[in-house]
Design goal:
InterPro entries: Carboh/pur_kinase_PfkB_CS, PfkB_dom, Ribokinase-like. This protein has 311 residues and is an alpha/beta fold. The chain has one domain: Ribokinase (UDP-N-acetylmuramoyl-L-alanine:D-glutamate ligase). The chain contains nine helices and 13 strands. The protein has a nine-stranded mixed β-sheet with strand order 5-4-1-8-9-10-11-12-13, sandwiched between helices. A four-stranded mixed β-sheet has the order 3-2-6-7. Strand 11 and strand 12 form a beta hairpin. Helix 3 packs parallel to helix 4, helix 7 packs antiparallel against helix 8 and helix 8 packs across helix 9. The longest helix has 15 residues. The relative contact order is 0.14.
Length: 311
Amino acid sequence: MNRDTDVLVLGGAGVDTIVHVPQLPLPYADSYMIHDGIRTRAGQTGDFMSLGLAALGLLTHHLDFLGDDPEGDLVRALHRERGITLTAIPQPAGTKRAVNLVGPDGRRLSLYDSSRGHPDDRFPEAMVRELAGRSRHAHVSITQPCVHALPVLRETGVTISTDLHDWDGENPYHEPFALAADVVFVSAARLADPERTLRRIAERGRARAVVATAGAKGAYLLAGGELTPVPPAAPPAPVVDSNGAGDAFAAAFLFGFLRGEPPRRCARYGALAGAHACTVPSTRADAIDRETLLARAAAEPEEEAAPVTGP
């Protein structure tokens, strides 16, 4: 079968309602006046991955459940406007949604509505097999029901990536994703020992590269048995919101991965894209494009970093 799609993105479609708050954590009060407005826009992790990949020139196909509701219409419109192919399976429970509280420093607290789905939801196996067979790579969100698609994806021979987000390194829900993927991303925010977690993923699974993102501290890359610190990139403008930075990092890393770049160069692309995302207000869904990413990578060549030999 002709692999005419670069990346198949599974899951993670939905809408976020953005609320800028005076501080996080938010002290209890009867009410707050939100002078910046409260806005709802399309864009959860799968949407941001699709946008990031497409902006970098990768042909992207997004597959997920969507409701026949105003929120689903926002998601469909976003994909239509950005020229991203979307296959939406009807979801009677409605489109996934969340509320993001964003502090003045750009940090966020997300409240996810977990009622927009059913435990027995499944992507049609024949559909997954057909779409994966036409794709060079599949990025799998950890939203339900993506875990059930992993065996089918493996059978097609497509390479797989996943983002475990703020995994604590112990919750068993995340393990099937971590162990089935060739490239694994995870936030270091809740990891007591990031190196231990990354090495466990590599030893127990099939990952060629495992990355723990650490916000303004950069990231850690485990590849070829070596743990290497990835320096943070300087944001090109003031930081306003960290929402979508992890997805931007992952999309740019995969851009390099699919070009056959070495892991350190892929991670450098990720750092640059993540820094760019932090300068984009959460009410917008914009991503760094290929020309800008490559120009910044050329202007800020990758620093030589010694492997980490201990905690």
